[in-house]
Amino acid sequence: MSPIMYGLLVTLFGLTIVFLVLTGLWGILAMMKLFFGGKKAQETQATVKSMVNTTGSEVTAAAVQSDEMDADELLAVITAAISACMGGENNLYVRKITRVGDNTPVWGQISKQEQMLNRL
Predict the structure, then answer these.
(1) Could you tell me if 46 and 58 lie in one domain?
(2) C-alpha triplet 84, 89, 91: angle, nearest 5°
(3) Is 36 left (phi over 0), alpha (psi -120 to 50) or beta?
(4) For residue 50, what are the CA distances in angstroms to 3, 31, 42, 43, 89?
(5) How far apart are CA 40 and CA 47, in angstroms?
């Protein structure tokens, strides 16, 4: 057997092994998602539904202060986020939004800014 044919045979054998292992890992991850992923999604939906009463009663959402965003746009964004978490139900009414102040010390705020700038 010539060296070129031997090299092609080794390459083909190696690629076959790599794809078989990747297929096996994909199967393992898919099974893990079935066993462990379903509970988390159900718990998240249950938590959101318990926090938000869809019959039209008062809903309070915590929002981060933003000088750039006006109140109507902020209300629309929060309502859309809650609706998306609930699966797109249309009978949701946000009546009140309570802003929460940032209690982080100055050194903590600077640290957050440095972390974000280092990731750019």
Answers:
(1) no
(2) 125
(3) alpha
(4) 69, 29, 12, 10, 14
(5) 10
Q: What is the count of structural domains for the chain?
A: 2
Domain extent at residue 118: 54-120
Contact in structure between 67 and 104 (CB atoms under 8 Å): no
Specify whether 47 is located in the same domain as 58.
no
**What is the residue-level pLDDT of the chain in tens, covering all 120 positions?**
899 999 999 999 999 999 999 999 999 999 988 888 655 555 555 555 555 444 444 444 443 444 445 777 877 888 888 888 877 666 777 777 777 788 888 899 889 888 888 887
Contact status, residue 49 vs residue 83, Cβ threshold 8 Å: no
C-alpha distance from residue 73 to each of 37, 77, 107 (Å): 33, 6, 31
Question: What is the spatial distance between Cα 85 and Cα 63, in angstroms, rounded to a whole number?
Answer: 16
Provide φ and ψ at 62, rounded to 5°: -85, 135
